[in-house]
């Protein structure tokens, strides 16, 4: 498909603080699991932990994002019923190497050999669940064009899960960075 915009969408205050709080409480009350992977070029360098998000919270988040996504990309985001959104926790020393979110043969192969599910979607939604002054480093970066983002709590960053949207997370130097990542499919308007 052709995308309306080449640039990531950055929408401050897309998610109400009350919903952010519910999401961070959820993460604090659940044991984080070691990292998963997603179209990673060097997956050994991603060490964040994650917690899965209940469906009703994911649906609430997508509905808050929908108008922003429509305005920027002229498409409608749709939840993928076969997979869960995840909240990632990045502690000191942890980042995420440059990668793209398109599902590749690496994941498909892994799914065949160890049964690990293939997780992906047309569009990636990243929601900040930490205030930027609560952690050092941890910028979300894009390569083409170069961009470094350290957004306020409740900000939505959205971008196509395509090979030309290479991005990653700079290593955290102090504190903890928490993000919600929702992968959605899209419907042309
Ligand atoms: O945590 C983030 O800000 C980005 C995570 C990411 O790129 C991914 O899950 O594919
Ligand atoms: Fe990603």
- Overall CATH class: Mainly Beta
Low-confidence stretches: 36-45
What is the element string, with H for helices and E for strands? Answer: EHEHEEEHEEEEEEEE
Overall structural class, as computed from helix and strand content, comes to alpha+beta
What about the largest sheet?
7 strands, antiparallel
What is the end-to-end distance? 13 Å
CA radius of gyration = 15 Å
Tell me, briefly, the overall form.
globular
Q: What is the strand content? A: 25-35%
Q: How many beta strands in the DSSP annotation?
A: 13
> What helical percentage do the residues reach?
10-25%
- Please identify which CATH superfamily we are dealing with: q2cbj1_9rhob like domain
Q: Would you identify the CATH architecture?
A: Sandwich
Please give the domain count: 1
Protein name: Fe2OG dioxygenase domain-containing protein
Cofactor: L-ascorbate
Keywords: Dioxygenase, Iron, Metal-binding, Oxidoreductase, Vitamin C
Organism: Streptomyces laurentii
Model description:
Its cofactor is L-ascorbate. Residues 81-186 form the Fe2OG dioxygenase domain. By secondary structure, the protein is an alpha+beta fold. It has one domain (9-188): Jelly Rolls (Sandwich), CATH 2.60.120. 22% of the residues lie in helices and 31% in strands. The protein contains three helices and 13 strands. It has helices at residues 17-28, 55-73, 105-114; strands at residues 9-11, 49-52, 75-78, 86-90, 96-99, 123-128, 135-137, 140-142, 147-149, 156-160, 167-169, 172-175, 177-188. Strands 1, 2, 3, 4, 6, 10 and 13 form a seven-stranded antiparallel sheet that branches. Strands 5-11-8-9 form a four-stranded antiparallel sheet, with no helix packed on it. Strand 8 and strand 9 form a beta hairpin. The longest helix is centred in the middle third of the chain and has 19 residues, at 55-73. The structure holds 2-oxoglutaric acid (AKG) and fe (ii) ion. Fe (ii) ion binds at residues 38, 99, 101, 124, 167.
